From TrEMBL:
GO terms for cellular component: cytosol. Belongs to the phosphoenolpyruvate carboxykinase [GTP] family. Its cofactor is Mn(2+). One of its GO terms (molecular function) is phosphoenolpyruvate carboxykinase (GTP) activity. This is phosphoenolpyruvate carboxykinase (GTP). SUPFAM superfamilies: PEP carboxykinase N-terminal domain (SSF68923), PEP carboxykinase-like (SSF53795). CDD domains: PEPCK_GTP. It comes from Didymodactylos carnosus. It comes from the Eukaryota. GO terms for biological process: cellular response to glucose stimulus; gluconeogenesis; glycerol biosynthetic process from pyruvate; oxaloacetate metabolic process; propionate catabolic process; response to lipid; response to starvation. Its EC number is 4.1.1.32. Monomer. The keyword Protease does not apply.
Length: 632
């Protein structure tokens, strides 16, 4: 078997891990077991083997770049089949006012689906999983991936071990996490080591019963992504797509992570972390929570290009922040990841040149299109690729032309590359004490009504603004139509415990005396002109103008005026130098009818979905907001 060149690391597994591997290999019945050392040699061997099997193609143009195209049924996170399993339902979900959604899958009658996550009883789920996993790795190799979330010398980093039958997962985990032998060394340093157990299978034992489409084995009918916080365990079946299969990312760092965070008094959030240096050379760190495919990577790598001369952005992370208050009362954040798993479409020389440069080597692309001269292609690259002189093959392996009905790349196509490849990676990005956060920014895709930027009144109001975030749905999950969905704290798909308790945790963590609380803001890059349907704000690099305003507010500059929804920039206080055709009134108009409707929807959402679990402070904030709006 080509994946099994050596296996000497089996002897190095601590006994807890060895018995986990034994138990799961007896269930999954792989032909081989291979413990990953994380070496360059091993990575090369796996990539070459995948290339030979047709699972990936080598880029003809870029060094050590690889292209995977998936079975078109396996392209995004599957939220309806993402489930948290515990003994007690109420630990995970509130009971919706009008009852749980009817379940269409007769094989899973007892899953409780809500707008804020799905729950099932642990014992029942184990029965379902045992049926799926029994013999699921026949004909395949079980890879053992020891990995660390967070830097090696950081006391807040945590270890996981993923067992998977997918070499694509191994190579992606090598980019997204710190993995291999050095993590085994960490495990072996202590008597009975703690690690999060992760089991993943593509769900296609060999020989396959059905044709494998695009050499991308998956089992969409049986896909299920399950979490067992009471057992520190993640079990995921049937999908190879990143968010469903790279357990370190959403399953561990956000879902299991947020539960550990609640217990241990910290925060695990779906947030970017960025360093901002102003023209005077002062540096501050911001973090920002935007829902999936709503602009975290782009903001974290913002290029100022002298729009406001002297500003410099450096990137600490683009997706996940683990944060805690230090002894001096400052909120400190680490990025638990080691790479970026970023949305490809929209990434271009004009929007995100830093990302474009970063993915020229050592990158795995999934579901992007390809040009005839061996380059990658996706929507947004029209001005960077000479479409008259190359032909394009779409992610579905079809000839593609400008104007074709279907997109060239899947809207959720992704690049996966090392954080260290980012030219503006922050010098402190691996610092074990984390970086001090002074601003927390919330945001989403709101085509109408929500202004470009506002600042919240205080911590409780900030928690309310996070709790009431709404955004247009995107291709990052299985939703096909654009609808405005609630996505509190950008965490809706990643909530793993009762949302009422999540809010209480946020409220209480800010209440301790002596804290230097970060200020909180809400931004919206996505306002549209209702007539032309064009964005009203140019976004991307131009967002530095808003970052500048926020920076000045952190320095207590008097450049804000009170409005019913929060502090708005005072007239003239946003630097608009050299920016033409901006309708600033439209970008900041607070319309009474819109906000009354917004309050009504928020109330309905809270009543229907959170019910008695909603902390009283949130009802108070809603009443206050509604009263202020009434006075417009
Ligand atoms: P996840 O990785 O899914 O968590 O997403 P993300 O929040 O990191 O989103 P990302 O930065 O990759 O952006 C998603 C899409 O939004 C891309 O197509 C971007 O081009 C687009 N986008 C990002 N920032 C802006 C902006 O300021 N204005 C506009 N109009 N589009 C933006
Ligand atoms: C997201 O959907 O928020 C992502 C991509 O960052 S995935 O890791 O696939 O969830
Ligand atoms: Mn994300």
């Amino acid at each position: 078997m080509e994946y099994c060149a050596k296996n000497q690391l089996l002897d190095k597994l601590p006994k807890e891990l060895l018995s986990y591997v034994q138990e799961k290999s007896e269930l999954c019945k792989p032909d081989h077991i291979y413990v990953c050392d994380g070496s360059e040699e091993e990575n090369k061997m796996l990539l070459a083997a995948m290339e030979k099997n047709g699972e990936i193609r080598k880029s003809k143009k870029h060094k050590n770049c690889w292209l995977a195209t998936t079975d078109p049924r396996d392209v995004a996170r599957v939220e309806s089949r993402t489930i948290i399993c515990t003994k007690n339902q109420h630990d995970v979900v509130s009971t919706p006012k009008s009852g749980f959604r009817p379940i269409v899958d007769p094989n899973m009658p007892n899953i409780k689906q809500t707008a804020l996550g799905n729950w099932m009883d642990t014992d029942e789920m184990i029965l379902i999983l045992n049926e799926r996993f029994n013999g699921c790795m026949k004909g395949r190799t079980m890879f053992v991936i020891p990995y660390m979330m967070g830097p090696f010398n950081c006391p807040y980093s945590k270890i996981g071990v993923e067992l998977t039958d997918s070499p694509y997962v191994v190579c992606s985990m090598r980019i997204m996490t710190r993995m291999g032998e050095r993590v085994l060394n960490e495990l072996n340093k202590v008597e009975s080591p703690n690690f999060i157990k992760c089991l993943h299978s593509v769900g296609v034992p060999l020989p396959a019963q059905e044709p494998i489409i695009n050499n991308w084995p998956c089992n969409p009918a049986k896909t299920i992504i399950t979490h067992f916080p009471e057992r520190n365990e993640i079990i995921t079946f049937g999908s190879g797509y990143g968010g469903n299969s790279l357990c370190g990312k959403k399953c561990f760092a956000l879902r299991i992570g947020s539960i550990l965070a609640k217990k241990e008094g910290w925060l695990a959030e779906h947030m970017l972390i960025m360093g901002v240096t102003n023209p005077k050379g002062e540096k501050k760190y911001f973090c920002a929570a935007f829902p999936s495919a709503c602009g975290k990577t782009n903001l974290a790598m913002l290029q100022n290009r002298d729009i406001i001369p002297g500003y410099k952005i450096e990137c600490v992370g683009d997706d996940i922040a683990w944060m805690r208050f230090d002894e001096e009362g400052r909120l400190r954040a680490i990025n638990p990841e080691f790479g970026f798993f970023g949305v490809a479409p929209g990434t271009s020389q004009s929007t995100n040149p830093i990302a474009l440069e970063m993915i020229k080597e050592d990158t795995i692309f999934t579901n992007v299109a390809e040009t005839s001269n061996g380059d990658v292609y996706w929507e947004g690259l029209e001005n960077d690729v000479d479409l008259n002189n190359v032909t394009i093959t779409s992610w579905k392996n079809q000839p593609w032309q400008k104007g074709s009905k279907e997109p060239a790349a899947h809207p959720n196509s992704r690049f996966c590359t090392y954080a260290s490849r980012c030219s503006i990676i922050d010098p402190n990005w691996e610092s074990p004490e984390g970086v001090p956060i002074e601003a927390i920014i919330f945001g989403g895709r709101r085509p109408t009504g929500v202004p470009l930027v506002y600042e919240v009144f205080d911590w409780d109001h900030g928690v309310f603004v996070g709790a009431t975030m709404r955004s247009e749905s995107t291709a990052a999950a299985e939703f096909t139509n654009k609808q405005i969905m609630n996505d509190p704290f950008a965490m809706r798909p990643f909530l793993a415990y009762n949302f009422g308790q999540y809010l209480s945790h946020w409220l209480s963590i800010g209440q301790k005396p002596g804290l230097k609380l970060p200020k909180m803001f809400h931004v919206n890059w996505f306002l549209k002109d209702p007539i032309t349907n064009q964005f009203l704000w140019p976004g991307f690099g131009e967002n530095i103008r808003i970052i500048d305003w926020i920076f000045r507010r952190l320095n207590n500059e008097n450049c804000a005026i009170k409005s019913p929804i929060g502090y708005l920039p005072e007239k003239g206080s946003i630097n608009l130098t050299n920016l033409k055709n901006i309708n600033i009134n439209q970008l900041f108009h607070i319309q009474k009818d819109f906000w009354l409707k917004e309050c009504k929807s928020i109330r309905e959402y809270f009543v229907e979905n959170v019910n008695d679990d909603l902390p009283k402070e949130m009802w108070t904030q809603l009443d206050l907001l509604e009263n202020r709006i009434q006075q417009i």
